[in-house]
TrEMBL record:
PROSITE patterns: ANTAR. One of its GO terms (molecular function) is RNA binding. Keywords: Kinase, Transcription, Transcription regulation, Transferase. Pfam families: ANTAR, GAF_2. Residues 170-231 form the ANTAR domain. It comes from Lacisediminihabitans changchengi. SUPFAM superfamilies: CheY-like (SSF52172), GAF domain-like (SSF55781). This is GAF and ANTAR domain-containing protein. InterPro entries: ANTAR, CheY-like_superfamily, GAF, GAF-like_dom_sf, GAF_ANTAR, WH-like_DNA-bd_sf.
Length: 237
């Protein structure tokens, strides 16, 4: 049995992201692939991704776990936190010891520590002058990513950003805003479907999402469409 090296798995992650850059690709699935790859390869316990809507307001679009989702939602609710700062300033924000920064972002620190996170690395999704969101890597230990991992995190975020803003799919800014808005609206339906599955199957939200996504991939359907069917009870998973 041949075991892939970390470098080979990282290259594979870039290839998978590049493979999604085709007409009609599923934006939500692209972003979920991005954060799952980032968390698995870059020494992170969990990850989350925020996107800006057509008014420039951030919303959570993808998360690898319920723990990271709760921390991200808390930041959006309170209006402060390192992820929001990375979006506003357009620069990487590193918090190597969340407890030590509790005075700076008290609500964020309290929730992050409660969920078992001790450090975070926030990467802006940017292309030239456009900043459309952030990729946020949560870690269970204090400290910072290595320089190599930090560069890889930025590279993965850049590929996803290009995928969203690619010229052949979005030639005008109005279309770009519409596509981003669609991704945000899709996530609302997906969260509703997760809740339905979790209740009916008596499972946690993470497993509910896994079941939802697996069905979409196995049937070749769009994730949002499957979620809508679950919500209106025309599909039981």
């Amino acid at each position: 049995m041949v075991t892939e090296s970390r470098e080979e798995r990282l290259v594979g992650a870039f290839v998978r992201l590049a493979d999604t850059l085709v007409a009609g690709y599923d934006v939500v699935d692209l972003l979920q692939t991005l954060i799952e790859s980032s968390a698995q390869l870059l020494d992170a316990s969990a990850a989350g991704l925020m996107l800006a809507d057509d008014k420039g307001e951030l919303a959570l679009v993808a998360a690898t776990s319920e723990r990271s989702r709760l921390v991200e939602m808390m930041q959006l609710s309170s209006g402060n936190g390192p992820c929001l700062e990375a979006f506003v300033c357009g620069e990487v924000v590193v918090v190597s010891d969340i407890a030590a920064e509790a005075a700076r972002w008290p609500e964020f620190a309290e929730e992050a520590l409660a969920q078992g996170f001790r450090s975070i690395h926030c990467v802006p999704m940017r292309l030239r002058g456009s900043i459309i969101g952030t990729v946020n890597l949560f870690r269970a230990a204090t400290g910072s990513l290595t320089a190599v991992d930090a560069a890889a995190a930025q590279g993965l975020a850049d590929v996803a950003t290009i995928g969203i803003l690619q010229e052949r799919a979005i030639r005008e800014s109005e279309v770009a805003r519409e596509q981003l808005q669609n991704a945000l609206e899709s996530r609302v339906v997906i969260e509703q479907a997760k809740g339905v599955i979790a209740q009916l199957r008596a499972v946690d939200m993470d497993l509910a999402f896994t079941l939802l996504r697996a069905h979409a991939r196995n049937t070749g359907r769009n994730l949002r469409d499957v979620a809508a069917d679950v919500v209106d009870r025309s599909l039981a998973l």
